[in-house]
Amino acid sequence: MLAELSVSLWRGGEDGRYETYSVPRRESQTVLDVVTFVQRHIDPTLSYRFACRVGVCGSCAMTVNGKPRWTCRTHVSKVAGSGRLEIGPLENLPVIKDLATDMEAFFEKWQKAQGVFAPTKTRHDEIEPIRPDSPARRLADAAIECINCGVCYAACDTVRWNQDYFGPAALTRAWTLLNDERDAGSTARLQAVAAAGGCHSCHSHQSCQELCPQALNPTAAIAGLKRRTTAAYLKGEIKA
Ligand code: SF4
Ligand code: SF4
Ligand code: FES
Question: Contact at 8 Å (CB) between 23 and 4?
Fold first, then answer.
């Protein structure tokens, strides 16, 4: 193992540039450890985002040697065999400063895809049992572990070409809610995801599925939305 890593970090806003630093190698070092070392020991003005450091909060995603990754669970030994690391902000999102991107558009698209739970019951009703092995519950389970990290959104070529496209995370959320038997928002949700920017813009490239750190499959969720919206249209439940 080399004693030092050569690390290029994006500095500045959209028109910034990469600057290179030397960072000591450590056992079990993560990419987030490397960024933190630079901020604590070399340049305290470096901006980046993290919270949990254990793969739960979804806030630490960055572009690492050309691919979007959650940096707190990405080991340097897996991605920097040559001893070089290039770390930039997530793509497809505006850069605030250095490694921090503005996630507003990402979360606004959750709203556009009707990604908010619409309850059928109030707190005064009995809690409805949902069988864990019911087909709908299994479909909802398949996408429920999303941590909103934005890796899939940064990996998606369709988002790059079409900034109105909702993207894989918002559509995966819509799919989860569509399969949630306690939710009452299906018709509005199907109408929303069938509209311009919705599921039918996906070209099934699968970059989202290849890179999702939670091993979710947004491509499959979006294929489910394509089937359900088409069936709803044919039944006259939603408009073209
Ligand atoms: S689907 Fe995967 S990659 Fe996309 S935001 Fe959720 S956890 Fe991150
Ligand atoms: S499968 Fe669809 S959502 Fe996923 S990266 Fe490709 S175009 Fe984007
Ligand atoms: S810091 Fe929370 S997922 Fe990486």
Answer: yes
- Tell me the best of 39, 56, 146 to mutate to test the pocket of ligand 3, counting ligand atoms within 8 Å of each CB and taking the most: 56
Mean pLDDT by 10 residues, the chain (240 residues): 89 98 95 98 98 97 98 96 93 98 97 94 89 90 92 97 97 96 94 97 95 96 97 94
Q: Which ligand is nearest to the CA of 214?
A: 1
Kindly give the number of the ligand 2 atom that is closest to the alpha carbon of 203.
7
| Ligand 1 centroid, distance to 234 Cα (angstroms) | 31
- The DSSP code sequence of 179-235 is T-TTB--HHHHHHHHHSTTSGGG-----HHHHH-TT---HHHHHHHHHHHHHHHHHT
- Residue whose CA is at the smallest distance from ligand 2 atom 8: 156
Instruction: For the chain, list the domains and their CATH numbers.
Output: 4-101 (3.10.20.30), 104-234 (1.10.1060.10)
